Amino acid sequence: MNHHSQIDTRTRQAAPSTATDELEYQSGFGNEYASQAVAGALPQGRNSPQHGPRGLYTELLSGTAFTAPRHENRRTWMYRRQPSVVAGHYEPFEQPYWQTGADSTVAVPPEPLRWAPWSNDNSQADFIDGMRTVAANGSADAQSGVAIHIYIADRPMSQRAFVNADGEMLIVPQQGTLLITTEMGRLQVQPREIVIIPRGVAFKVDPVQDTGQPIRGYICENYGAQFRLPELGPIGSNGLANARDFLAPVAAFEDTTGEYELIRKFGGRFWRVPLHSSPFNVVAWHGNLSPVKYDTAHFMTIGSISYDHPDPSIFTVLTSPSDTPGTANCDFVIFPPRWLVMEDTFRPPWFHRNFMSEFMGLVYGQYDAKPGGFKPGGASLHNCMVPHGPDEESYARATAAELRPQKLDNTLAFMFESRFRFVPTRFAMQGPELDKNYIDCWKGLKDQFER
Ligand SMILES: O=C(O)Cc1cc(O)ccc1O
Ligand SMILES: [Fe+2]
């Protein structure tokens, strides 16, 4: 099933890169998916028959505690050519730029921060080597908080696979199409789409075409509760990201021979182990723990059709709740193409100070609160209680505008919003991408009080 062909491009914005996706998927979010690459490989009526089907080994992957409530419980049964315990000894692997948890030695100024698109500092990097942590909070061992990384990669992972025991990974591609091979099968993901790789699932990321440009994007590594669809409350039973638009892979296994290198992130450290065959050897699987992708063009955006600018929580695609109701470990929020029709309203985001900490990125186009300075591939950070809002240009434009219905088009910004303060890494604070003059975009907002 190719869902791209179903997008109505008259009303929905096409992504800048449009490689066609010929892969097959199963639809739904957190379904009891079932798939087999070879007939007879998926047992019927039981999970672990005395003899695995077709000589396959049975292996269970639990993404939540066995006793997690039913609506949160995630696990998948895999039928594979070898169990994943077949491996040698692990040895340490170095990835010094991929950091875990807040770095308490970094002094974070309580002011708005912004970064230009990061430059490619290593043109020999795959997805793992090309990862750079830009901010983090919480702790992987405490199962709370997130890290935000950017990746810039020029080469395929090829015979290298990766397992993250510290959290799930929400990938937001910004440039170039990815082919993601996982234990559950393959997904193709391009800018405008997002993908979630659950904690513990082996995967690798390869560029789809050689465009001469590296693949680039943002990642939210989530140490906390798994991302899920938000409650809809009075919105009702439909809207925002609809579950049926999420796509899980179908079972597929690799026949490649030769050595694999498996890299495992475990408690903030990296380890490597040689494998004598591909870890992508699952012939059939069933369960509700699976990577899924989602095309944000399917997002049913809701906004004000009377007056005022609503809170951006109406744009929540996914939420990772914390123990405090309504106060997320992390929300993933998008600012997609949409109509603005509010009457007698300052339409861009208001000036504000927020309890929650806001990390923003831009996939393409312009963000209405910051028409200049905030570039695709760059980022901004407005931490807990840090004042921010529309820049001078946006303010001038919005207060002068004639309030006709207006389409914000050709744009996709997003926000990782967390209850925990984001601590930028040394890499982010000391690199040349940090915008030293960001605060100046507000300096012309003079006192114009008419007494
Ligand atoms: O600060 C930002 O640009 C993000 C944001 C957008 C919005 O529409 C309302 C509040 C908010 O924090
Ligand atoms: Fe904000």
TrEMBL record:
The record lists homogentisate as bound by 367, 388
According to the record, the residues making up region (Disordered) are 1-21
The record, for PANTHER family, names: HOMOGENTISATE 1,2-DIOXYGENASE
What is the designated name of this protein? Homogentisate 1,2-dioxygenase
Please name the Pfam families in this protein's record: HgmA_C, HgmA_N
Tell me the cofactors it needs: Fe cation
Q: Which GO terms describe its cellular component?
A: cytoplasm
Annotated positions binding Fe cation: 352, 358, 388
Q: Which GO terms describe its molecular function?
A: homogentisate 1,2-dioxygenase activity; metal ion binding
